[in-house]
Amino acid sequence: MIIHNKKNIVIPASFSFRSFEIEVVPEFKLLGVIIDNKLNFTSHVNTLKATINKKLNSIKQLFFLSKPNPESPLPLKTQLIVNESLNKPYNLRNSDKFYTPGSL
Q1: Euclidean distance between CA atoms 44 and 40, whole angstroms
Q2: How does pLDDT run across 19-59, given as a tens digit for each residue?
Q3: For the chain, how are helix, strand and coil distributed in percent, rounded to 5?
Q4: Which residues share a beta bridge with 90?
Q5: Number of H helices, E strands in the chain
Q6: How far is residue 87 CA from its own chain's centroid?
Q7: Considering only 8-17, 31-40, 64-73, 87-96, which range has the smallest mean pLDDT?
Q8: CA gap 104, 100 in Å, rounded
Q9: What is this structure's pTM?
Q10: Origin, by domain of life (predicted)?
Q11: Where do the DSSP E strands lie in the chain?
């Protein structure tokens, strides 16, 4: 990545330094933060927003699909984990989807 403050500059696709070929990229990830060639964080914020939306939608679906029964002898946490009424186990940690049937 080449950082500059000029408006009209021609950036090469790659350049060499001490016989190493270095590719020029428009953005890269450094220590978990995505930075572009103008030192903006918009792509990082968009990535975080998409990740947070996925997780919030999963939680929202979890609470809409598994309605806890207040008269049940089971604790609320157990009702949400087991989800016996729909018989659909879920996995929020390692899946893009909210539930994966037959994962138990």
Answers
A1: 9
A2: 888 888 888 888 988 888 778 888 899 999 999 998 888 88
A3: 30, 15, 55
A4: 99
A5: 2, 4
A6: 27
A7: 87-96
A8: 9
A9: 0.46
A10: Eukaryota
A11: 14-17, 20-23, 27-30, 33-36
Q: Which amino acid appears at position 69 of this protein? A: N
H runs (alpha helix) in 20-88? 42-65, 76-82
Closest CA to 81 of 72, 94, 68: 68
The pair of structure tokens assigned to 78 is 């157990």
Question: Are the C-beta atoms of residues 37 and 26 closer than 8 Å to each other?
Answer: yes
Residues in the chain: 104
Quote the CA–CA distance of 52 and 63 in Å, as a whole number. Answer: 17
Structure tokens belonging to residue 103? 């994962």
Q: Of 44, 14, 49, 50, which is closest to residue 31 (Cα–Cα)?
A: 44
Q: How far apart are CA 75 and CA 64, in angstroms?
A: 18
DSSP 8-state code for residue 63: H
